[in-house]
Amino acid sequence: MFRLQSILVIIILLVLSTSVNIFLVLSYTANKTSNDLKTVAEFEKTLCSRKNINKEKKWKEQRCPPQGFVTVNSSARLGNQMWQYISVWGVAKRTGLDAYIPRCNREILSNAFDSLTVPTLDEISHCMVNVREFAKSLEEWNNNKQGIMIKSNAFLAEVALKWVEDVRKQFTFREHLVKKSQDILRTVVKDNTDKVFVGVHVRRTDYSRYLPRKYKLKLANVSFYYSAMKYYEDKYKNVVFILTSDDNKWCIKQFSDKSNVFVVGEHFRNSPYLDLAVLAACNHSIFDYGTYGGWSAILAGGETIFYKIKGALPERVAKLLPNWHTFR
Ligand SMILES: *[C@@H]1O[C@H](CO)[C@@H](O)[C@H](O)[C@H]1NC(C)=O
Ligand SMILES: *[C@@H]1O[C@H](CO)[C@@H](O)[C@H](O)[C@H]1NC(C)=O
Ligand SMILES: *[C@@H]1O[C@H](CO)[C@@H](O)[C@H](O)[C@H]1NC(C)=O
Fold first, then answer.
1. Mean pLDDT (10-residue bins), the chain, 328 residues
2. Which residues contact 229 (CB under 8 A, 6 or more apart)?
3. Is 293 inside a domain boundary?
4. Which ligand is nearest to the CA of 217?
5. Which CA distances in Å does 250 have to 208, 254, 269, 315?
6. Both 64 and 184 in a single domain?
7. In terms of domains, do 255 and 141 share one?
8. 140 and 66 assigned to the same domain
9. Residue 294: is it exposed, middle or buried by C-beta count within 10 angstroms (0-12/13-18/19+)?
């Protein structure tokens, strides 16, 4: 009798623990699938590091993209955000998929540009997506009703810059920035002589920590800028260097003895958007590193000298754009 009882107890315990296990497993899988399947409105929140995106505009319900769509995980500042946008644009052009960018990306870019054609995710906010089904790159994409989620640091230059003229059209500056940047250039040219404008971007602040960490390099010293400037001075008669920087103090000091260097921040209240418009209005470019300086040169569309860093993005761009080069 005693044995039978203990066997029964054991059986009951076994049954209980198995069912608890089954219950746990079931609820876990249920949770997992419900986490993967999201509305685009929920999905968009995971793509934006900045949480305070504007309230949704009410769109007439759009049809949901039948083939999946291209989008991007958005972060960092203007230069990176431009790569994120143009990577989505380029991959959509290459694959034929629809493209949508998160609103946090559009909000930054709209400060500078007004001809962006890629719509924002809130236009399809009611659609359902399975987060796990996105390919993480063009190479991973199976070409079969699958979307692509581009990583925030993918910077797909090889895809987008094939259409570099169209890229420049996407990044058409707002009228007030065009006007202001032309005013600035006209201020520099006091006489009526024809000048060759070379835009120079000097990036320092955050790169003094980033360069040693990522490339074991120090900031470019002043001799890089001087020799790049000399290259243009030898090539053209009337060159003026239009310089913008995140460290105006350093630039004013370093270039004070060069009468053909104009540090924009010394004379004008500027912003990253205006600085970019000014650099893009120049004929040729010098920049050291960073996506922001890189974009200023791509948009200017002239000859470009950059600081040599093995394996960095400008090296890749130089393989795609014929007039980009470096020296050291
Ligand atoms: C986007 O990037 C952030 C930060 O790196 C990450 O937390 C988030 O999960 C990413 N979103 C997706 C959908 O992968
Ligand atoms: C500047 O840096 C270069 C290497 O990039 C180095 O050869 C040169 O000696 C440096 N010049 C000065 C003045 O520190
Ligand atoms: C050089 O840039 C200035 C200022 O934007 C512009 O007016 C001029 O037409 C450009 N010159 C050439 C040869 O493109």
1. 58 51 43 73 89 68 90 96 98 96 96 97 94 93 91 97 98 98 93 90 97 97 97 96 98 96 95 98 98 98 97 97 88
2. 198, 200, 239, 241, 258, 261, 286
3. yes
4. 2
5. 13, 6, 17, 27
6. no
7. no
8. yes
9. buried
Total of domains in the chain: 2
Structure tokens at 60: 């007439």
227 Cβ closer than 6 Å to some ligand 2 atom: no
Could you tell me the pTM of the whole model?
0.88
| Residue written as token pair 């995710």 | 121
**Token reading at 224:** 């890089």
160 and 187 co-located in one domain = no
**Ligand 1: residue whose CA is nearest its atom 7:** 46
**Residue whose CB lies within 8 A of the most ligand 3 atoms, among 278, 279, 282, 283, for a mutation test:** 283
| Strand bridging mode 261-263 / 128-130 | unpaired
Shortest-distance ligand to the CA of residue 307 = 2
Residue with tokens 């990583």: 151
Report the distance separating Cα 123 and Cα 143, nearest Å: 24
With vertex at residue 190, the alpha carbon angle to CA 188 and CA 191, rounded to the nearest 5 degrees, is: 135
